Automatic annotation (TrEMBL):
It comes from Mucilaginibacter robiniae. GO terms for molecular function: hydrolase activity. The keyword Hydrolase applies. This is Glycoside hydrolase family 125 protein. SUPFAM superfamilies: Six-hairpin glycosidases. GO terms for biological process: carbohydrate metabolic process. It holds the Pfam family Glyco_hydro_125. Keywords: Hydrolase.
Amino acid sequence: MMSVPVKAFTFDYYPNVPISKTDRRFESKVIEQAILQFQHKVKNKEPGWLFGNCFSTTLNTTVTFHNQGGRPDTYMITGDIDAMWFRDSSAQVWPCISFIPKDGRLKGLIASVINRKTAYILKYPYANAFYYDPAKVGKWAHDLTDMQAGIHGNKQA
């Protein structure tokens, strides 16, 4: 039996998913420039398209960035659940670390993610996800863990 390689699907064009400037939650000209440089260097258009959409969309849609008490503060959702997960939010800012020397706002963003995580750990060290609203009660409020208001996920019984 002879096999023939088949492509599952392909695009003739790669639709850009721009977020309008008024709807962006956080913007970095340094990141936008890095995306353009990568897209220019890569020969295959699909990875460039995917990288551009994913990298910019993370900053543009999942970040709530502001100052609280004179310190930068960032709440960062994963996208589909309105909660800040420790692991996911770390993975979301990790690609930005190498750009810190060129962008002070990115430095503030990452510092503020650390600030918020510190506050969450001090509030309840066994939780792995928190809500922006510290009074919000999640759907698991009455499970076998000590689910306090403001906690989305908890790992201790």
